[in-house]
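Deliverable D2.4 — example input (structure tokens):
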């Protein structure tokens, strides 16, 4: 698909090396097409890697997509050059007058804090409320899923005794749901988190539906019955080596980290990781774009409610 992203974004070269069709702003300006407008609030520390992972998955669709990146005002990332942030990211108060077909909110390295202890929680709440009225459908990932469930529905998160870390098998509740078209009965999703949400809390909320779960990893996908929100507690967007990088980083810092489960062949970290979630991730994002964004959004974005 023609994925329209800002000129000079580092992800362009990386994705083109993978033979993914990327259209920069200059070329897209010559096409008379109303692209889907997607806003990404990227809260992950390694922003360029996360951009590339998400854009790789968003590219797997025949739809033209225009991407904007949002950042938290006043928060300076430690692992991304300031020049990159200045070139490609805009604050919420610069974007809050716009409407978008879809929004993706990533995880963040703050999950062991109470929500109210997060320095940007007040702004996060503003963004979550804004998205309800200005975005057709929002995809929440990992910490963002927990934050969205807490803010909108009062669902608490709970600390785990040890990190949920690895690649886990999942089952789906209803294969006829549009988000699961093309899925196998069993599918894999990476997880990397210290906290969880619990089924018994979610089942008390009529507006929510648990649609994917794992015996090992617990609740993984929750859908608002309206379709406007999808909450994913795992990381389908991860590339092959992301968990490997996290594991070796924590080992080098002498942090308490176990070998990620179901990831290295024979459970040996020296072995190249086995990727078992790529096709699922591509289906998840393309189905979200098609059935929850493109099929639902008005042609005139001002009509989003």
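Example output (designed residues):
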């Amino acid at each position: 698909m023609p994925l329209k992203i800002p000129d000079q974004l580092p992800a362009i070269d990386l994705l083109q090396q993978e033979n993914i069709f990327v259209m920069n702003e200059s070329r897209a300006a010559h096409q008379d097409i109303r692209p889907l407008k997607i806003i990404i609030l990227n809260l992950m520390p390694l922003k360029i890697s996360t951009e590339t992972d998400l854009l790789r998955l968003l590219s797997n669709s025949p739809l033209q997509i225009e991407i904007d990146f949002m950042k938290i005002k006043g928060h300076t990332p430690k692992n991304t050059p300031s020049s990159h942030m200045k070139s490609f990211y805009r604050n919420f108060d610069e974007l809050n007058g716009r409407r978008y077909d879809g929004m993706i909110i990533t995880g963040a390295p703050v999950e062991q804090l109470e929500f109210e202890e997060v320095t940007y929680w007040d702004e996060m709440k503003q963004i979550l409320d804004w998205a309800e009225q200005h975005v057709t459908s929002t995809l929440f990932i990992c910490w963002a899923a927990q934050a969205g469930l807490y803010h909108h529905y009062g669902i608490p998160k709970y600390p785990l005794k040890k990190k949920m870390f690895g690649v886990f098998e999942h089952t789906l509740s209803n294969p006829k749901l549009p988000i699961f078209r093309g899925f196998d009965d069993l599918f894999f999703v990476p997880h990397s988190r210290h906290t969880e949400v619990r089924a018994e809390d979610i089942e008390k909320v009529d507006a929510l539906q648990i649609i994917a779960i794992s015996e090992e990893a617990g609740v993984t996908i929750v859908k608002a019955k309206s379709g406007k929100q999808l909450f994913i507690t795992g990381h389908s967007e991860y590339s092959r080596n992301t968990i490997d990088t996290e594991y070796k980083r924590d080992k080098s810092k002498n942090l308490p980290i176990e070998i990620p489960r179901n990831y290295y062949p024979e459970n040996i970290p020296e072995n190249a990781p086995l990727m078992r979630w790529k096709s699922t991730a591509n289906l998840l994002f393309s189905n979200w774009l098609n059935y929850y964004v493109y099929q639902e959004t008005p042609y005139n974005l001002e009509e989003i409610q």
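Confidence is low (pLDDT under 50) at residues 27-32.
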